[in-house]
Specification:
78 residues, alpha+beta, 4-stranded antiparallel beta sheet, 2 helices
């Protein structure tokens, strides 16, 4: 069994969060998978973002506010 640190991105309610988790790889049929604590961490970030609790979300990951971009407004030469 080996573990690797990975960044998972959670997108919720106009925000995105990068969350570091350990991905576990083994020879069984369920690999790769997350530990229960890392799965709960992802759920906690998702819940915090959904409820606008940015303070809690930033304790668990790196949070970004998403801004829509108009397709034609950012073309070169326009």
């Amino acid at each position: 069994m080996t573990t690797q640190t990975r960044t998972k991105v959670i997108h919720e309610a106009g925000y995105a969060a990068e969350v570091e988790v350990e991905v576990i790889d083994s020879d069984d049929g369920w690999a790769p998978y997350l530990s229960l604590s890392d799965a709960r961490k992802l759920d906690a970030v998702r819940f915090a973002l959904r409820n606008g609790d940015l303070k809690q979300a930033t304790r668990l990951g790196r949070v970004f506010e998403l801004t829509p971009v108009e397709a034609d407004s950012h073309r070169p030469g326009r």
